[in-house]
Design goal:
The complex is a heterodimer of chains A (332) and B (288).
Chain A lengths: L12 H25 L4 H23 L8 H16 L6 H23 L4 H21 L1 H4 L5 E2 L17 H23 L1 H11 L1 H6 L4 H27 L1 E2 L6 H14 L5 H18 L3 H18 L3 H17 L1
Antiparallel strand pairs in A: 1-2
Helix pairs in contact in A: 1-7, 2-7, 2-10, 2-11, 2-12, 3-4, 3-5, 3-10, 4-10, 7-10, 8-10, 11-12, 11-14, 12-14
Chain B lengths: L1 H32 L6 H17 L5 H22 L9 H23 L15 E3 L4 E3 H23 L1 H11 L1 H6 L4 H22 L10 H4 L1 H11 L4 H21 L6 H13 L10
Antiparallel strand pairs in B: 1-2
The chains are: A mainly alpha (332), B mainly alpha (288).
């Protein structure tokens, strides 16, 4: 079966550019709507953005590269912890520097663990990714001199952004930082996935044997993508650390990895937009339902997951696009 | 010194055997239907709940409750197999993982709704409570029984798969489902029967191991990773592989907990990474 490596997204010069400008406009207007609707709960919105960065990073490595991982919290938590340690232990309190530290932490852990995880395939890959995330959680628990252990790393006190915008309980400055960050990351990932590198990633996902036969280095390409993905997730972790001013062991948990995968599949893997939609709808819905009863929430998520796998394997965004395409074709 | 070593060895052996009884079914379904069933632990949990209810609320004896629990779990599982699992056999791993995590979440939520978040106790019968004197040492009777049940399950499964007509059908379906089908083997029936056996064994393991792995709603999630790890190290569908993997991991886990408890499960997971990297197809995998 012949599958062209160049997806339809690459076709049409200015069309996709306009569409992306429109997409970013939609993201920004949603950010404004959130600000207007929940002015007293901006920390929740900032948490959503942090999680959205994690899901975007997962979309890059799982949705675009086809790497099966249930350990993405490892890079998210590494970013959160390195940013937190930089602030609490080394006195580096500038939020932008903390985010840079988060990216570095995520990238380093991704580079080290990627060498091991990318050796496996399918089930082996899943188990390796889980085991490495669990090991990291144990290390964070044990190295309490640096990480605060099971009490969490408290006392993160970020300076004003650019020395101007004070980070306080209202969280307006943090929210603005979060939105700028996620838009920049989104633009970067959009360019990356459209680049020849991104096409090579999708080619490897579709058929690694053929990609290798073309002369591409499969493992090298995947490792690069994994490091980039780690940096993105690490920034999400750092953002969460800045916003909540504490880093806990749960940022390295298996539950977080599993949840981020659920969000990605719910929104639609391999589209970036799907990652954002999945993260936003999942966390908002969770906040809404689990306030009533956390166990009902678990039942609903489970049922939702089964339903998505059976009836909407492309996720919310993917199915919506497919529906729109079908309607357009019917009209012609 | 010898005393400590002996008691650790017994604990490790008993724990490994319980692990084996629970996970061998998961390994079977993975070898036969090519499905990564992360909800397997949830079925063990259902078995534990039913047994606890049957003994404590309905006053059944231990053995009767065991049978009731296993049958109930199978009755619950068959429609799930028919409606949900059958659609994801041989699907990509990630799809299966998502679906079975979803099923696990549902079962956890429902278990909590019905039984509440508290720990459920399965009282042991009189003859399993005390220690058993082996002449030179004494061992807790329930540990001995867990070891015996694990051994019995291993032998019975080996006999079933290698020596009976049903086992021939299973092996034929594993090797080539289409060919076996054209020779008159009803693959769907084989799948359903194997799934029932796997789930029944999970329930048995959940009840027998309730002293070591207490029954509560998050049981299914708490041990999910451990079960998955055992199966992937043992290799799909290999009884010997699963047995070796369970005993090995049981030993590593128990010794680690005893000697370096402050490092938690770090060494277990380190061992997992090393083992999985060295044997990506499992320790003693059947050639695919």
């Amino acid at each position: 079966m012949f599958k062209p490596f160049i997806g339809s997204a690459a076709a049409g010069g200015t069309k996709w550019f306009l569409r992306d400008v429109f997409g970013i406009g939609v993201i920004l207007s949603f950010a404004c709507v959130g600000f207007v609707l929940f002015p007293n709960n901006l920390s929740l919105l900032t948490r959503i953005v942090g999680i959205a960065l994690l899901v975007l990073s997962l979309d890059l490595i799982t949705g675009h590269c086809g790497v099966a991982t249930l350990g993405q919290s490892a890079v998210f938590g590494a970013g959160a912890y390195l940013a937190g340690i930089a602030a609490v232990r080394w006195g580096i309190n500038d939020p932008l520097l903390m985010i840079a530290f988060g990216a570095i932490g995520g990238a380093i852990v991704a580079a080290l663990s990627g060498v091991i995880i990318l050796r496996g395939h399918g089930l082996t890959q899943l188990v390796l990714s889980i085991a490495i995330a669990q090991m990291l959680q144990q290390i964070a628990n044990k190295a309490s001199a640096y990480t605060g252990g099971s009490d969490g790393l408290a006392g993160i006190d970020p300076l004003p952004i650019f020395g101007l915008f004070v980070i306080n309980l209202w969280g307006r400055a943090t929210y603005a930082l979060a939105i700028v960050l996620v838009v920049l990351v989104f633009i970067f990932l959009r360019i990356l996935t459209r680049s020849p590198f991104g096409m090579l990633c999708r080619g490897i996902k579709d058929d690694p044997v053929r990609a290798r036969a073309m002369g591409a280095s499969v493992r090298g390409t995947l490792l690069k993508a994994y490091v980039i993905s780690g940096a993105v997730a690490g920034m999400g972790g750092a953002l969460t650390a800045i916003s909540t001013q504490v880093v806990g062991l749960d940022s390295l948990s298996f539950q977080l990895s599993a949840q981020s995968l659920v969000m990605l599949v719910l929104g639609g893997a391999g589209t970036l937009y799907g990652a954002l939609i999945g993260a936003v709808s999942f966390v908002l819905f969770e906040d809404f339902v689990s306030a009533a009863n956390p166990f009902h929430w678990l039942t609903i998520v489970g049922a939702l997951l089964v339903a998505v796998v059976l009836f909407a394997p492309k996720g919310l965004y993917g199915e919506a696009v497919a529906l729109a395409d079908r309607m357009k074709r019917d009209r012609l | 010194m010898v005393q400590t070593f002996f008691s650790i060895a017994v604990d490790a052996f008993a724990f490994g055997m319980v692990l084996f009884v629970i996970t061998i079914g998961m390994s079977m379904t993975m070898g036969l239907m090519r499905v990564v069933n992360l909800a397997h632990g949830a079925f063990a949990m259902i078995g534990g709940y039913v047994a606890s209810y049957a003994i404590q609320a309905l006053d059944f004896g231990y053995a009767t409750a065991l049978l009731i629990a296993i049958c109930t779990t199978i009755v619950v599982a068959i429609p799930i197999e028919r409606l949900l699992y059958r659609r994801i056999y041989r699907a990509p791993e990630l799809t299966q993982v998502l679906m079975t995590i979803g099923i696990t979440f549902c079962i956890i939520g429902i278990a909590n709704y019905i039984a509440g978040p508290t720990l459920k106790i399965i009282p042991l019968p009189e003859f399993l409570r005390g220690p058993v004197d082996l002449g030179f040492r004494s061992i807790a009777a329930y540990k001995l029984s867990a070891i015996a049940i694990g051994g019995g399950v291993a032998i019975a499964l080996w006999f079933l798969i290698e020596r009976t007509a049903f086992g021939v059908y299973i092996r034929a379906t594993v090797d080539n489902a289409a060919m076996a089908g054209s020779l008159g083997v009803n693959a769907k029936l084989i799948y359903a029967a194997s799934f029932a056996i796997a789930v029944g064994l999970a329930a048995l393991g959940g009840i027998v191991g309730a002293q070591m792995m207490p029954i509560e709603p998050y049981y299914a999630l708490r041990y999910m990773v451990m079960f998955l790890v055992v199966v992937s190290i043992g290799g799909a569908g290999s009884i010997r592989g699963a047995l070796v993997a369970c005993l090995l991991l049981g030993a590593i886990d128990t010794t680690g907990r005893f000697f370096v408890p402050e490092y938690g499960e770090f060494f277990s997971y380190l061992a997992v990474v090393v083992l999985v990297s060295l044997f990506p197809n499992g320790l003693l995998a059947r050639a695919a």
